[in-house]
Design goal:
By secondary structure, this protein is of the alpha+beta class. The chain is about 40% helix and about 20% strand. The protein is built from 12 helices and 12 strands. The relative contact order is 0.07. This is DUF559 domain-containing protein.
Length: about 290
């Protein structure tokens, strides 16, 4: 059944007052209910957005921010992300878990995805870059430009006088949609900040016969050095660990050295950067 407005469900005869008052339904917001066994999980941002839009009376609001990014397939939202609802000039009371934005979006900035009105990938990126810090803004721009297949530089054509617009140009300069995940973007920014020679993201390693060996997160082809993020899942999943070991052996057989980066390295990147620079130097890099 999905989330519903109580008054509409009663008028249509879809539910009785007795059931509405009982434990089989859960109140989400004033006049908004859902069957108790269908309440969206706290980490299901899209499901929470579907529930939240029913809270606003009249024309449906536009979902923006991290929730819009999730709808588009850019999985960058932090665990505590709220649902952004863009309501125009209407007066809507804030509620826990919601961010009510009295803003107006129209035209190409609004698209419909699976029945939800959401900001476009480009507009979502513009909004997030203006609101977030530098690293999180670049992460958002990388991911949304990748799934939306737009040039990050297009954000520079948007109003320069908008709130937070000063953050747009630095984010655009640092963006690279080839990064395949948040960790890869954070790695790239750490390397750039510490003057590591620029690598090729998502580099395809090939053997002497030009047969495909592996795609690495970052590659320095001249020196046969790669840097890759190693998430905890690679260690905890036995099958994944075995695949990783075979892959590393194939890369080594082609003369490649892989410098790993862990979650701790993302928080404190200097040790990772030093290891990477030493490895590049061993391979003849003098920069």
């Amino acid at each position: 059944m999905g989330p519903f407005r109580a008054n509409e469900a009663l008028a249509a005869g879809d539910i009785t007052r007795g059931r509405l008052a009982g434990p089989s339904t859960t109140r989400l917001f004033p006049n908004v209910r859902v069957l108790t066994d269908q309440v969206a999980d706290p980490d299901d941002l899209v499901g929470r957005a579907r529930e939240a839009v029913l809270y606003v009376r009249g024309d449906p609001p536009v979902v923006g921010g991290y929730a819009a990014a999730e709808v588009h397939g850019a999985h960058i939202a932090p665990p505590d992300a709220v649902v952004d609802l863009i309501v125009g000039r209407r007066s809507v009371r804030p509620r826990p878990g919601l961010s009510i934005r009295r803003d107006t979006v129209a035209g190409d900035d609004v698209v419909e995805v699976d029945g939800l009105l959401v900001t476009s990938t480009e507009r979502t990126a513009w909004d997030l870059v203006r609101r977030l810090g530098f690293v999180d803004g670049v992460v958002a721009l990388d991911a949304l430009a990748r799934v939306g297949e737009f040039d990050p530089a297009r954000l520079l054509d948007r109003p320069a006088g908008a709130r937070g617009a000063r953050r747009v140009a630095p984010a655009v300069e640092a963006a690279d949609p080839r990064s395949g995940s948040r960790p890869e973007t954070v790695m790239r920014l750490a390397m750039a900040r510490n003057e590591v020679p620029t690598p090729t993201p998502q580099f395809e390693v090939r053997d002497a016969q030009y047969l495909f060996v592996a795609r690495v997160d970052f590659g320095w082809d001249e020196f046969k050095v790669a840097a890759e993020y190693q998430g905890d899942g690679h260690r905890m999943d036995l099958k994944q660990w075995r695949r990783d070991q075979s892959r590393l052996a194939e890369l080594a057989s082609c003369g490649w050295i892989v410098v790993p980066c862990t979650a701790d390295d993302l928080l404190f990147p200097l040790a990772f950067v030093r290891r990477l620079l030493k490895t590049l130097a061993l391979r003849g890099c003098t920069v």
